[in-house]
Amino acid sequence: MTLLSAFSIFVGLLLLWQSVIWIFSLPPYLLPSPARVAHAIVTRLPSLMTSLGLTAAAAAGGLLAALLVGVAIALLFAQSPWIRRMFYPYTILLQTVPIVAIAPMILLWIGPGLSAVTLIAFIICLAPIVANTTQGLISVDRNMVDLFLMHNASRSQVLLKLRLPHAMPSIFTGIRIASGIAVIGAITGELFAGSSRVGVGGIGYAIQYASAQLETDYLFALVLAATLLGFVFFFAVMFLDWYFLHHWHESARVVDQE
């Protein structure tokens, strides 16, 4: 039933799209029809898949690096309140850094290509993972901590057997937020960092080319591909969230009941 409803909404949006073109007599270079976009996807499928693969690799690499570094930073913050008070605000400031301002500097420092794009995706993904993981690690009930200490648990045991399992839902919340903006970060990076090879680049690089050539139908195809990639990242994280938590945490059990 859910799939039928989603398909009906999709068909309705396509009909609305086509109706706007008919009503206002819009030329294809302003708003191509769904049929023209579908034709562009079919005819340009090899180059579209190449761009999609490069963007996916950069976004996944940045997200994975942000997860590893972010969790490590959060573990350090959870172990030392002094370090957390000193450095936690600076990690949150990463969210306020305009990525379009530092992207040219990254390009200047390490050159164009996949490495620069991955670094930009990493920077944009790091803050939500650090913030959510840290909050989960330090939000453990004090009575549970005292219970562990009463049984002579070490700091590492409290961290790994109490705080880290307790923080798993918060960690996945951070990853879920970062998974969406990872694609945005990768595409933004590609708009500036471009490609290390002429004519070969990710979705952002291809968007620049299609826009310069007024290939609006292919431009729409690239936007749809980027949207689809964002959905894939998001639902992959949702599946991992359910897989690891549904046996014991209420947030995932609610999804099961629905």
By CATH, the architecture is named Orthogonal Bundle
Average pLDDT works out at 85
Number of helical runs?
11
CATH evolutionary superfamily = MetI-like
Order of helices and strands: HHHHHHHHHHH
Largest sheet: none
Instruction: Give the uncertain stretches in residue-range form.
Output: 254-258
CATH topology category name = MetI-like fold
* Quaternary: single chain
Based on CA atoms alone, the radius of gyration comes out at 22 Å
Number of domains: 1
Proportion of helical residues = over 70%
Number of strands: 0
Measured by DSSP, the beta-strand proportion falls in under 5%
Termini separation = 13 Å
Secondary structural class: mainly alpha
The outline comes out as: elongated
Q: Report the top-level CATH class.
A: Mainly Alpha
If you had to describe this structure to a student in words, what would you say it looks like?
There is one protein chain. The chain has a single domain, classed as MetI-like fold (Orthogonal Bundle), CATH 1.10.3720. It is mainly α and 258 residues long. The protein has helices at 2-24, 34-43, 45-79, 81-92, 99-110, 114-138, 142-150, 155-193, 203-212, 216-245, 250-257. The longest helix is centred in the last third of the chain and has 39 residues, at 155-193.
